[in-house]
Amino acid sequence: MIIDSNKIALHNDELLKNHQNKLVFTASEIAETESIIQKLIDFQIAIPSWALGTGGTRFGRFPGGGEPRSLEEKIEDVGLLHALNNASGAISLHIPWDIPTDRNAIKALAAQHGLKFDAVNSNTFQDQANAEYSYKFGSLQNVNKAIRKQAVQHNIDVIQQGVELGSESLTVWLADGSCFPGQLNFRKAYENTLESLQEIYAALPSNWKLFLEYKCAEPNFYSTTVADWGQSYSYVKKLGDKAKTLVDLGHHLPNANIEQIVSILLMEDKLGGFHFNDSKYGDDDLTAGALKPYQLFLIFNELVEGMDARGMNHAKDLGWMIDASHNVKDPMEDLLQSVEAIMIAYAQALSVDRKALEIAQNENDVVKAQEILQNAFRTDVRALVAEARLRAGAALNPVGLYRNLAVRNELIGERGLKTVATGL
Ligand code: RM4
Ligand code: MN
Ligand code: MN
Fold it and tell me: Which residues hold their Cβ within 5 A of ligand 2, which is an ion?
């Protein structure tokens, strides 16, 4: 299915007057709205290929119908999202969940939808049917050298797949760790992991980056071999300039100060990218901004401040991706909501009065500093985000139009009710 641009234009015409009124009001509240709108137009958030099907839990899965049955259909789905919001211009593949068979056809299809290939993700947390060894006791950390070699080779194969698609980064998330005290020698697990990562790093093309994700727990519940940002930092620092830490919002212990982590990693030039989601307990992978929008804003506040301090390009110099997966929502609607929440937080962070904040900080004016941040957070920037979409030919109200056009019903008609997407 492809959304006809006339339908988007018609939808926008209906909402235009109301939108323009809101925009005038927003512009009266925020300085430099033009430069904010341009940054919003440029900002793209990659969609992971595994988020387009209904996510399950270990207790069950309740697919909603019309799920993409192939990589081609996943690309079509991301194309639909991008047509609606002009902010989802990239897809991130998880391999081997999504292995392109005809690479040229896949590339042409993506280009037709205006999509790029974002980071490729390796998978050494599940055993593959044709694999010689099992990852039950870890992959890159494994006590068995042959198993480590298999996992290293998989990552090298993934890089190769990515090169052919035009990706420029590899994301490594390891499930490695231990479930019981005594199971693992922590130091040896670290050393094995480092050695394996060094072998993968050596296979990176010169224009590539390696992102090392950390996660405090799950599926191992006693120790994780890359458990927190400090451990990830320790590895990527040893690996070299092309290796960076990747922050997934759901991978921290409760109440961790993620915005401070972001700030320090940026200062060290070791922040590689982001996986957005929200959570109440752990790696819940709920819709970004659904529970803690203020935290999301505070993170973007540090991102904008830190990227500007280093003269970085907001849109290009870090990897931005959603990493969420749902049991109860239409995945497409959920992704539209996540992108919207991320854009709002970004716009709010761009609107922070940085000079006034710096003065307040230097004067230890705690109340004023809090006022500045909360003022930005409490100002409604939705009209700026909508205006960015309007100017780029996307929809003023993406979820509204998705529903009006009955996209899901159409996909069910095309693909059937009982389709199952690869992924979690
Ligand atoms: C992990 C982690 C990875 C993602 C897998 C599916 O918790 O967030 O980024 O690839 O889940
Ligand atoms: Mn992740
Ligand atoms: Mn995760």
Answer: 248, 275, 323
